[in-house]
Amino acid sequence: LAQKYDPQKEVELRTWIESVTGKQIGPDFQKGLKDGVILCELMNKLQPNSVRKINRSAQNWHQLENLSNFIKAMASYGMNPVDLFEANDLFESGNLTQVQVSLLALAGMAKTKGLQSGVDIGVKYSEKQQRNFDEAKMKAGQCVIGLQMGTNKCASQSGMTAYGTRRHLYDPKNQILPPMDHSTISLQMGTNKCASQVGMTAPGTRRHIYDAKMGTEKCDNSSMSLQMGSNQGANQSGQVFGLGRQIYDPKYCPQGSQGEVANAAGDQSGDPPGYHYYREEE
């Protein structure tokens, strides 16, 4: 607290108090204000009869009473409670920094109330400016977007197309050609400068992949591409949908025997023993 004490402010306060009261404080600022007499006279100059009794005795309790009356007068003058100091802060030099802050605030309050002095000291207090608006003005203010929600002063929707349509970005600095019509696809959607749909078949039909570098041959449109798989190793030859199918394995059925010939011809008289055939009922 002692390091926060400003000697320059002390000189300004000394000049201000002496100019208002017409009294000399003396070389020691603390001892000159310790008895509270000059401070009480200062309050009576700022606000007449704010301190009714000033004790000029050298007794300690009389001096403390003067300081207490001065503090009460500052509170009634309009000072904030946080700007006040206690009597022992000045009487016993307990907190001279707070005393200096209180006197500076008192000078600012006096300036606010219109006191004219030869010393410009203290900060003028802010004044309350109350405004009364009618009901129509209050309702109109509800439609105003506050600055907490941002501002659109630097942006607009000028030139915007309908939502969902394409918009071409044109910048002459980048040597981009201006758009010719609204059907131009902007660079934000990619570009088709290096690709086309030439030779594309209808959606859903087969397309053959042909690469001249690989030495592959062109096929007709009926060929099934490798993207759809391959049926080179299987076919549906001999398939009968809905009917029974006999599985034949030459390892278990002898070839060229009389039983096979009899089954093929449908002749029961030529059946050798051990082989039988079955005629399908209509």
TrEMBL record:
Residues 254-282 are annotated as: Disordered. GO terms for biological process: actin filament organization; actomyosin structure organization. One of its GO terms (molecular function) is actin filament binding. Residues 7-111 form the Calponin-homology (CH) domain. InterPro entries: Calponin-like, Calponin/LIMCH1, Calponin_repeat, CH_dom, CH_dom_sf, SM22_calponin. Belongs to the calponin family. Thin filament-associated protein that is implicated in the regulation and modulation of smooth muscle contraction. It is capable of binding to actin, calmodulin and tropomyosin. The interaction of calponin with actin inhibits the actomyosin Mg-ATPase activity. This is Calponin. The gene is Cnn2.
